[in-house]
Amino acid sequence: MVIWPAAGIGLAALLLSPRRLWPAIAAVLFISGNLANLLAGRPFMGSVGFMTANVLESLGCASLALRICGDGITFSRAREVVALFAAAIFVNAATACVGAATAHFISTAPFWTFWRTWFIADGLGILLVTPVIVSWATRQEPMLGVRWHCVAEQGAFLVIWFVLAWLTFNPSAIFGMRTLPPFLLFALLPWPALRFGTRGTTLALVLLTILSVTGAALNADYHTPLLWGGEDPIHRLLLAQFYVAVMTMTALLLAASHSEAKSAGESILQSEARYRGLVEGTNDVVWRVDLQGRFTFINSAAKVIAGFEPEELLGENFDFLLEPASIEAAAVSLERRLSGRLDREGAALELVHRRKDGSLFQGEILTAPVLDLEGRLLEIQGVTRDITERKRTEEALRKSEERHRTILQMAMDGFWVADTQGRLLEVNEAYCRMSGYSEEELLAMRISDLEVDETEDAVTKRFQKILAQGQDRFESRHRRKDGTIIDVEVCSQHKAAEGGRFVTFVHEITERKRVEEALRQSEEKYRELVENANSIILRMDKEGHVTFFNEFAHRFFGYTPEEILGRNVVGTIVPETDSSGRDLRAMILDISLHPENYAVNENENM
């Protein structure tokens, strides 16, 4: 036998099914194979031995392939093709021993002769039939319309491939009753592999196998050896089998490698699109400059912040956007970045920028190097943020500190000043009301006496963080004098004067936390209500694809979440037309565009 398709069919059935179904599939293969053998008159013990070897072969090959490649094998990756090749050699070699031993036991057939026949025929079945079934059974992206130029190209290839394959295995008077050199077909392999993918490649290999099996060159009446040898039919058959196996491996590897390269290219394009989307979606100006300081890229936020279109700035020097007094500081920073000496203080710059209309704004700049694979600096990329409002706030805060005594005593938020040991030195009336302590009681306490979540050591670590950053904003909980606990938002800033002081504002957020918790519980109740409602509740996107299905809808229509989510409502729960002929597909599209017109609507479902 030239090829044993059952070996590939069994393996394909396992690869296309979840592992939990493997025992059932193996049982079906075993029982159906034995029934076929018994109906064909084969001995019962021999049938059991052969089918045991076949089932073990399929299970072993599938287990090895999934162990190497994981689930979802489609033979579109070189790793999957190599795993298939390894299974066809090692697992097949082991199970061939079982089959050969069975044949030797029931008919005293030569062990190694039968082993060789089994190994080659089953190996070809695994290598050829499995990719054919898996690739054609795997769902692929649908094509929009018929691409006639592709159809023409595929037709031209099949004609050329058929003619050359036929001449390779059938003597022709044109070549002196000899066959074509086999390497001609090897030269054609990149065509289907690179142009038609795994499906087209397997189709070409099936055609080649059929022509090789039916070719006159393998007939016993043909006495002239093939161009690559084979004096008798047995040797010619072995050479043809080896030739088909090598062609199959080569073609599958070419197709898989091209598919991987194509997928990698598409992933890069998608990654670039996502990156560009992030860059264009930010409110900050993202830019790149070359080593001469000229803009090579700038996002559309430049229009919002500075009033310039990105195209107006490309090629301009970075100092084009700066007020003259800031140019020198920017030049120093650029020089330090180029020399690799940019320290923490130089990592963030605050410079005065110029808008297109001549107005000025404060900008904070963060930069990072763009290096090549050898670590050489190619460009400098950076982000510019408009901090004008922040600077105004800081200036307002500075002025407010100058007269803080009056203002803070009238403030609704709590306020205190503490030393580096955590002792309270000053508090306002608002915090006294907030905590329930008098001013005298608070001035005798430490911050750790008020904190619920932080010990004295934790407060010390918090001070160290504020010292490192200059300020910090966080949420905490304080204990009132009566023992009740309140949620607070704390904003603390370190002042170096008088040995170090921590100036802190405390805003009570207990009510906000209560509202947030109530909102969370309300959302949970709403979700529970929707899921448990005895009505169909669903959501769909503008194209009619289902994005949410409540529990009642799943029970009513009989779809699981995996089966319905992402699918279009038309063709699943809504027919394309109702019994009166109304176009429901158009209605669904109109609902997604004008939902206000369908507050009340009746239509048939399926």
| Largest sheet: number of strands, sense, barrel closure | 5 strands, antiparallel
Using only C-alpha atoms, the radius of gyration works out to 38 Å
Arrangement of strands in the largest sheet: 2-1-5-4-3
**On the 0-100 scale, what is the average pLDDT?**
84
Structure, described:
- 56% of the residues lie in helices and 14% in strands.
- With 606 residues, it is an alpha+beta fold.
- α5 (111-137) runs antiparallel to α9 (197-214), α5 (111-137) runs parallel beside α10 and α9 packs antiparallel against α10 (233-281).
- The radius of gyration is 38 Å and the shape is elongated.
- The two termini are 51 Å apart.
- The mean pLDDT is 84.
Features:
single chain, 606 residues, alpha+beta, 5-stranded antiparallel beta sheet, 12 strands
Furnish the topology, listing elements before pairings.
Elements: H1 5-15, H2 22-39, H3 44-69, H4 78-107, H5 111-137, H6 148-169, H7 183-188, H8 190-195, H9 197-214, H10 233-281, E1 285-289, E2 295-298, H11 301-305, H12 310-313, H13 324-339, H14 344-347, E3 348-354, E4 360-371, E5 377-386, H15 388-402, H16 404-410, E6 414-418, E7 424-427, H17 429-435, H18 439-442, H19 447-450, H20 456-469, E8 471-479, E9 485-495, E10 501-508, H21 510-532, E11 538-540, E12 546-549, H22 551-557, H23 561-564, H24 584-593
Antiparallel strand pairs: 1-2, 1-5, 3-4, 4-5, 6-7, 6-10, 8-9, 9-10, 11-12
